[in-house]
Amino acid sequence: MKSPGDLVQRLERQWRSADTREARLLNPVEHWPLKLAIGKPSARQVSEEPRIVRSHLAAWRNVSIGEVHWETVRYRGLTQAVSVPTQWELPTPSSWAQASGSGEVQSQFSALSALISAADPVFHRYFVRRRSWLSKPLDEVIAAAKLAAELEPACLGGRPLRMMGGQDIDSKFGERHGPLLTALLDIRYSGLASELGLGPFLDAAEESDHWLLVVDLDGGLLPFKQMRLRAQDLMSYVLPGERLLVVENERCLYLLPDLPRTIAILGAGLNLEWLRAPIVGEKDLAYWGDIDTWGLRMLATARRHQPKISALLMDESTFANNLQHAVIEPRPVDALPDCELTASEKQLWMNLVAEDSGRLEQEFLPQDLVADAMRSWIATDASSSVTVETNG
Predict the structure, then answer these.
(1) Model confidence at 1, in pLDDT bands (50, 70, 90)?
(2) Which of 112, 224, 279, 302 has the fewest CB atoms in 10 Å of its CB?
(3) Are the C-beta atoms of residues 263 and 210 closer than 8 Å to each other?
């Protein structure tokens, strides 16, 4: 037989289990009311330990939370039947928190209830399973949840990160809650906010150091074959050489061939503000990214800053010839850019959205194919440029 104290301790332990919290709080029909077995006193206990049994019965009569179910039992050697507690029934999650006897659990339940009421349901599982947010002011966590439900990729359009909430949050909100916002946006966009970083994901103006990999494909233009420069330095630093190759991901560095008079910049992702610099526009420019909606979105951003930039290996032919490496794109971009893509690139976008596996990551392309495309680019007349459509 279990005392109220025994089951109170069990209830508190169960609250500390993320799996149990998720099951009971997010699937109420399956788990409520919660019924806890108390266990009947044995015949030996009744006959040999009557004081303990009486104390047990009295303790359960004093329980006022939920409902204690009793059963009349006849024991050998007793002239009268005994009413004993057999089950403790708790009707709701709030009674679970109250019955745990823990002020900490009750406080956490109260905060979680307020947060769940205010947050988009897509975030409920995150908040129920993780309790790290409890160390933050509840009103700010609620504000972060509401903000994360409204933010969209590239929604800042080059404005500072502190402007993501308009006038409703203070300028340091993003600094205090950046990891939380990133985690919540990851839920909506399949981890993309973490992959790109919160600022690049929102297309925010760079307010901190974003270091890019700069590679000398010529071998004699820079003091080192590879070096790191801050994105903001590329706005004013004049890189040597005639050509600049912008590559979405660092992990495909090994595919790049030696190219005369050429510098490559890798790992910029959506952080392409530095392309606006007039000194960048003096170079022959090319962009190479993944063949998916995000890669085309980044190409469009690059074109917005430098309309003459060429796209390499981002076409229907490359996709079709390497279809065996294509995978599902977890969260395609919702909106097709209006005017920065060519007609064939817009058609590619629509084809990718229609594909079950509409993502071809650049590092899976054959090395010979990449080398041929790069050498064909530098052999092209430097005066040629991409013709970009306008609306209508």
Answers:
(1) confident
(2) 224
(3) no
DSSP states of 201-244: HHTPBP-S--EEEEEESSSSSSSSSEEEEEGGGGGT----SSEE
Is the CB of residue 303 less than 8 Å from the CB of residue 342? Answer: no
Q: pLDDT per residue over 195-223, tens digit each? A: 888 888 888 766 556 788 999 999 999 99
Q: What is d(CA 196, CA 268) in angstroms, rounded to the nearest whole number?
A: 9
How far apart are the C-alpha atoms of 117 and 114, rounded to whole Å?
Answer: 5
In the 8-state DSSP scheme, what is residue 335? S
Residues 6+ apart with CB under 8 A from 164: 147, 151, 155, 156, 174, 202, 204
Across the strands, what pairs with 36?
88
pLDDT in tens, 190-199: 888 888 888 8
* Run of H or E residues at 283: none
Mean of all residue pLDDT scores within the chain: 87
Do 271 and 199 touch, CB atoms closer than 8 A?
Answer: yes
Predicted confidence at residue 74, as pLDDT, reads: 86
Averaged pLDDT, 322-337:
85
Can you say whether residue 34 is alpha, beta or left, with left for phi > 0 and alpha for psi between -120 and 50 degrees? beta
Q: Which residue has the tokens 């890669």?
A: 295
What is the SS3 assignment for 247? strand
Any idea of the CA torsion for 285, 288, 291, 292, to the nearest 10 degrees?
Answer: -70
| pLDDT attached to residue 323 | 93
Q: Which residues pair with 266 in a beta bridge?
A: 213, 247
pTM here?
0.57
Exposure on the CB side of residue 132, measured as CA atoms within 13 A: 6
Find the DSSP H helices in the chain: 4-15, 18-26, 28-31, 43-48, 50-61, 93-99, 103-118, 124-129, 138-150, 173-188, 192-196, 198-202, 278-281, 293-305, 316-321, 343-354, 367-379
CA 136, distance to chain mean position in Å, is 19
Closest CA to 307 of 376, 217, 212, 390: 390
Give the chain's largest Cα–Cα span: 109
Q: Which two tokens stand for residue 173?
A: 């909100």
Cα–Cα dist 212/230, whole Å? 6
Rounded to whole angstroms, what are the CA distances from 110 to 64, 116, 168?
A: 20, 10, 25
Q: Which two tokens stand for residue 245?
A: 């190759």
Whether residue 212 contacts residue 222, with contact meaning beta carbons closer than 8 Å, is answered with no
